[in-house]
Amino acid sequence: MSLRARKNIIRRLKNNEMPFLNTKIEIKIGKELTKRQISYISQYPLDKKFVCDFVLIPFNIVIECDGDYWHANPKIYPPADLNKTQLEKVKRDKFKDLYLSKKGWKIFRFFESDINKSPEKCVDKIINEIKQQLKDIKNPLDNL
Question: Residue 69: phi, psi to the nearest 5?
Fold first, then answer.
């Protein structure tokens, strides 16, 4: 995606000009985060490079909700059988993950089928990460 296209998407998101803000699977994850009283920001533009489905800023957590087809869920779509669009998405997802992890973000990607099956289990993984981070903060001298 070109820099111009990315900037246009981010501008449209900021101004609520997108045809939609959240997909069905993003809505499910958002509802589960809200139910568990986890504060988040959705459709968060990061470094003028990416828009993340959700961020939990205090914990440097990014949550991505990936459609099975478009993001080529390997449980459904064998890597050898991917079309050009799927290959490009997978490549971009890997680049995004690498970039964000180098910036200190912890990335969680959940596929559509996993979210539809149990958004609770997906959010459980986020909660486990938050608990681990809080444990590390509460006992900083334990690491010495």
Answer: -70, -55
End-to-end CA distance of the chain: 45
Tokens 């958004």 -> residue: 119
Q: What is the pLDDT of residues 5-52, one digit of tens each?
A: 767 766 665 665 555 568 899 999 999 999 999 999 998 988 878 889
| DSSP-derived 3-state class of residue 36 | coil
Q: Where are the alpha helices (DSSP H) in the chain?
A: 3-14, 24-35, 84-102, 112-117, 119-138
Domains and CATH numbers, the chain: 3-143 (3.40.960.10)
Say if CB 38 and CB 126 are below 8 A apart: yes
